[in-house]
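User: quick one, fold this
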Amino acid sequence: MTGAGGMLGRDLQRALAEQGESSVVAATRADLDITSAAQVDDAVAGADVVLNAAAWTNVDAAESAEAEATAINGRAVALLAAAAGKRLIHVSTDYVFDGRATTPIPEDTPHAPINAYGRGKAAGEWAVLSAGGYVVRTAWLYGEHGPNFIRTMLTLAESRPHLDVVDDQVGPPTWSYALAHQLVALSRAAATGQAQPGAYHGTASGSTTWFGLARAVFEEAGLDPSRIRPTTTDRFPRPARRPPYSVLSHARWSETGIAPLPHWRTQLTEAMPHLQR
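Assistant:
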């Protein structure tokens, strides 16, 4: 697997161990340069499944460094796809869509990215799908091993009486540890032919806004949720446009025998003890 040092990568290592996978090669950025064709070819040779969790994740920075972001999220993914083919399971994002939908977005929806990060990720997806591999799109990801919205809310709660949080973006808050187990299950199903190649959506069931998520975080932490006040995206301008609607359909999981991920609130309740350490 690649991206072993990241938030999802660290959870993937734990999930693989918990599910009894002992022959795992976990490569960090220091171990493997995924922009090098020679290194990629050597790294994936002999692997039954290749899990790619490596990515450029700074969405706003990609606006002024699109070439650099696409080198990781697009061209490097193409190298992995060329080397691994149908053995590759690649983690992608809701940002390949424009967020204009009002109902959960099906897996076969055409790409329509609205920022540089999304364009790079769409290029990576195209390469994987063309090579017969697997794409797992996720959204609103948070976890124990990296900076994320929930940790930010808990930190700000210590110093501010009220927090203004946007209430006009809708999505499925997804725990990286739960996604990691879903990816391990898919890798096994792929290796046995139980899961067909293509795009899958690895997000929590249900949806909320960032405002709704912030209130839920305060409730879980025993804080007063009325300290969270709703606002709009235009009050917090950022370099990269955000999709206003990021709820993804989970229909393809029915083909695999693997259940979709649980409801976002169930995941949050289970995750909070790990996030408050």
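User: anything notable?
Assistant: Residues 66-84 form the longest helix (19 residues).
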